Amino acid sequence: MAKKIKTRFVCQECGYFTTKWLGRCPQCNSWNSFVEEVEKKEDKNVRKTGIGSLEKPVRLSEIQLSNENRFSTSIGELDQVLGGGIVEGSLILVGGDPGIGKSTLLLQMANNVASKDKKVLYISGEESLKQTKLRADRLKIMSDNLFFVSENDIDVIVSHVKNMSPQLLIIDSIQTVHSSDLSSAPGTVSQVREATNTFMNVSKGMGIATFIIGHVTKNGAIAGPKILEHMVDTVLYFEGEKNNVYKILRAVKNRFGSTNELGIFEMTSGGLKEILNPSEIFISKNVKESPGSVITAAMEGTRPILIEIQALVARTNFGMPRRMANGLDYNKVVMLMAVLEKIKGMMIQDQDGYINVVGGMTLNEPAADLAVIAAIASSFLNVTIKKDVVLFGEVGLTGEIRAVSMADQRINEAKKMGFRKCIIPKENLNNLNSENDIAIEGVENISDVFSILF
Questions:
Q1: What is the C-alpha end-to-end distance of the chain, expressed in Å?
Q2: 8 A C-beta contact, residue 259 and residue 118
Q3: Percent of the chain having pLDDT more than 70?
Q4: Do 378 and 292 meet the contact criterion of CB atoms below 8 Å apart?
Q5: Cα(382)–Cα(360) distance, integer angstroms
Q6: 441 and 453 in contact (C-beta within 8 Å)?
Q7: Phi and psi at residue 360, in whole multiples of 5°?
Q8: What is the mean pLDDT of residues 219-237?
Q9: Which of 160, 163, 418, 428 makes the best surface tag, with the fewest CB within 10 Å?
């Protein structure tokens, strides 16, 4: 008598499983997300081993530290986001919208690494070898140490990796890889989890740095189970509008470096080109001075960037005025407008307010509050703020200007870009370490700011 095959239903959004089909997942509340999958049977006679081998527990004081073996990608922006280069044996996940440049960047990186006498294996599960060749010719890639395989069976891929033993492995993409041990389709929760676990064991066991490209859902999250991001060492996100030539690479998880770093690239006909001075692309030098435009100094990790903030305040034609924020937190903008109404008595309750961060950047730090306040007031009063002035500082609900971190770096960036005056929190004046030949004015509240600008 044939043995009955056991199946279970797995939610493709969160990985929750049950013995019967459900219309809505009780864990993530997703509708019609359950897919029937055959339970994978494990041989109880096979001894299980993990990536750390069967060593005995040791004391913390007995663990010997060694420097992490890194190698450069020859792309400065990518090295900075990774924390100084690629760590041998690390597993790195790269996500982003379709067509944003994930494969292009990794192909350029693979060529640079292969040019340094390192073997690189590029696994393409979406494109044929001829399609990959066309992309490589466009990017002028011709290294002899760069090998390509068009395959999506994980057993075959692992066999190629063990036979070749490359220093760098690239999987494009994880959603196309499947295991014959599972009956579910490629891209499902079980397949993605199984493939990632296999590549993690291979990467850690053989000391191979592995890059995995992941698709994203319509909500912007990487497709597959959330455990996928927990299993890897580093998670990189490619951000940027589809029609915008500038792309931002941001680290949201990094076990070997800071998660606050970002890299900025420009999409050209010859591939992605790194932007060495991001401040130049985020401020408009050729635009005439106009009300509502203010320059602020933001910190992205350890890098200061000068960014232009624009505001447009106009009388509304409806009973309820509109508030829109692009690149800033909507609730923060509403709060700052309320501070202007309460502290300075500006009658903007019947005005539409539109705030925009130029260049597609997203500012999350509070140091941009002062620039947002100044831009809104400038547009409402129809008074121009000079283009050679930089403002930064956190604004409280009572109108006070609070100190921010890394004031020296922000001021030095403004000085380097040719600005003549910085308006900063007064508390930061006592902590400036370097001498600056740029006019610096400290302010305690927004009334001080108004007396200087207006």
A1: 89
A2: no
A3: 89
A4: yes
A5: 25
A6: no
A7: 80, 10
A8: 75
A9: 163
Q: Which of 93-107, 234-248, 375-389 has the lowest mean pLDDT?
A: 234-248
Cβ 408 vs Cβ 363: under 8 Å: no
Three-state SS at 155: helix
State the greatest distance between any 2 C-alpha atoms of the chain, in Å, as a whole number: 90
Pairing outcome for strands 262-268 and 271-274: antiparallel
Q: Which of 413, 222, 209, 182 is nearest to 305 (CA)?
A: 413
- Which pTM was predicted? 0.74
Task: List the structure tokens of 444.
Answer: 């305690």
**What is the CB-side half-sphere exposure of residue 266 using CA atoms within 13 A?**
13
Residue for token pair 């663990």: 63
Q: Supply 104's token pair.
A: 């292009």
The rounded distance, in Å, linking the Cα atoms of 123 and 148 is 6
Distance CA 134, CA 122 (A): 15
Is residue 298 within 8 A of residue 365, CB to CB? The reply is yes
Q: Residue 227's closest CA among 174, 161, 156?
A: 174
How far apart, in whole angstroms, are the C-alpha atoms of residue 141 and residue 126?
19
| Tokens 């490359």, residue located | 166
Question: Is a pLDDT exceeding 90 seen at residue 399?
Answer: yes
Residue 367, token pair as written in the block: 């140091």
How far apart CA 220 and CA 92 sit, in angstroms, is: 18
Cα torsion 402, 406, 411, 412 to 10°: value is: 180
Tokens of 274: 């790194």
Burial class (CB in 10 A: 0-12, 13-18, 19+), 452: middle
Choose the weakest-confidence range: 155-159, 221-225, 368-372, 378-382.
221-225
Residues linked to residue 237 through DSSP beta bridges, in sequence order: 95, 250
Q: Please write the tens of the pLDDT for every residue from 304-353.
A: 999 999 999 999 888 889 999 999 999 999 999 999 999 998 989 889 99
Spatial distance between the Cα atoms of 188 and 35, rounded to a whole number of angstroms: 8
Q: What is the pLDDT of residue 26?
A: 92
Q: How confident is the model at residue 242 (pLDDT cuts 50, 70, 90)?
A: low
d(CA 16, CA 189): 9
Distances (CA, A) of 30 to 14, 105, 192, 282, 436: 9, 33, 19, 39, 56
Q: Any idea how long the chain is?
A: 454
Predicted confidence (pLDDT) per residue in 55-75, tens digit: 688 888 887 766 668 899 999
Helix, strand, or coil (residue 149):
strand
Distance (Å, whole) CA 78 – CA 333: 32
- Is 94:236 a contact under the CB 8 Å cutoff? yes
Cα dihedral 445, 447, 449, 454 in deg (nearest 10): 170
Per the structure block, which two tokens stand in for 399?
A: 């109108």
Which two tokens mark 360?
């597609």
